[in-house]
Amino acid sequence: MNDPATQRLLEIDRAHIWHPYSAMHSELPVFPVESARGVRLYLADGRELIDGMASWWCAIHGYNHPRLNAALESQLERMAHVMFGGLTHEPAVSLVETLLTIVPEPLQSVFICDSGSVAVEVAMKMALQYWQARGQGGKQRFATLRGGYHGDTLGAMSVCDPVTGMHRLFTSVLAQQHFVERPRSRFGEPCSDEDIAPLAQLFAGHHAEIAALILEPVVQGAGGMYFYSADFLRRARELCDAHGILLIADEIATGFGRSGKLFACEHAPIAPDILCLGKALTGGYLSLAATIATTEVSATIDAGDPGVFMHGPTFMGNPLACAVARASIELLLESPWAARIEAIERQLGEALAPCRDLPQVAEVRVLGAIGVVEMKRPVDMRTISRQFVDAGVWVRPFGRLVYLMPAYVIDAADLDRLCAAVTEVVALQPR
Fold first, then answer.
1. Contacts for 59 with CB less than 8 Å, ≥ 6 apart
2. Could you please report the per-residue DSSP string of 221-277?
3. Which position among 279, 285, 403, 414 bears the catalytic label?
4. pLDDT tens across 58-102, in order?
């Protein structure tokens, strides 16, 4: 039973607060969290949950990490924020310096922005300004893969899957982009000529109007948790070069090790013209993203009309966020992150394997620190969320997907409990 203070909190929440992809007075349960530490969430009713989501994949070091806390506290004593127009500061410069040591070498120009969706908007605007500066202003459309997801703002929505991308309501007002089928070749397989043919045909017929191809390298995230051939990525890069089309890699979900490589592009390996980063950039502490372009892209924009890049958020380069982002990247690089993710991948593969025998399950797939159980029918969020909480874990499915993306610091015992809970709860779902 909730105490009066918690009950009041829930009443105000239900009456006045929207949650992601939810109605104001939704019947979906919400669970008040009082604190979090390591890989555990501590609820107001006294229960503790092992977190399998890493707060939508960003809290890669777990919660309340003393080193990240210290980075914030130290920066807070100096300044929490200062405008980035006409000013600069050490946290932003140090973060950029650190980023440039780990991203593909051609990427040298960094735009520090607010969130993943904004990073995608910035990347799309960069591509448009690049071609305008080159005197090819007719290149105003984008190509992308079906099954993709790139964010919730208008530009980003236009390159999300028009059927499964959660944005069908806005189709009539979104810019019309070019969609091609995602490759059937799965991760670890070569890309067939049949898989690359739709993209090749699109580019051959429409390259004069396409500014860039935007895709999530190797792992399509919120659009379906689909793992596709890295060889497709390599061949897509070749097609972009052949037809004069920029390549934007949306690594907001996959950046910083989630797929088993520091960046998913490394599986190909290729370098994009523009790279979008977010989520794990700050270790889950504050909203921050980065859009990183090649010198060719930035220099061309600078040489064009009006000679500046036309974007500038109020909280661009926020010192607090930059300070904790740099600390998070350093913490990651100093850790045995690759070995940890390899161990998580192996354990997810073994511990989720029993789900394959359940009649409710269509497929089980694992890549890096991502484990996916795809159901044959959509889950009922009203019941399955409570079932996971009752099992002592936090797992947030969507559609037909029950998945795990834990913090990299999770130990084997907690990961076993997560996987066991997934198997148990999935078995309770209707066939």
1. 51, 280, 283, 284, 407
2. -TTT-EEB-HHHHHHHHHHHHHHT-EEEEE-TTTTTTTTSSSSGGGGTT---SEEEE
3. 279
4. 999 999 999 999 999 999 999 999 999 999 999 999 999 999 999
Does residue 130 carry a catalytic annotation?
no
User: Could you tell me which CATH number the domain at 69-334 has?
Assistant: 3.40.640.10
- At the topology level of CATH, where does 31-64+336-428 sit? Aspartate Aminotransferase, domain 1 (3.90.1150)
Asked whether residue 1 carries a pLDDT value surpassing 60, the answer given is no
Catalytic position from the list 51, 114, 231, 250: 250
**Residue owning tokens 């000679």:** 307
396, pLDDT greater than 60: yes
Q: Does 261 qualify as catalytic in the annotation?
A: no
Which of the residues 63, 130, 149, 228 is marked catalytic? Answer: 149
Q: What is the pLDDT of residue 98?
A: 98
Which pair of tokens denotes residue 160? Answer: 């999300």
User: Which of the residues 3, 13, 21, 411 is marked catalytic?
Assistant: 21
Domain borders along the chain are: 31-64+336-428, 69-334
- Position 2 scores a pLDDT of 67
Say whether 305 is catalytic: no
Alpha-carbon Rg for the chain, nearest whole angstrom, is 22
d(CA 279, CA 316): 16
Global pTM exceeds 0.85: yes
250 is catalytic: yes
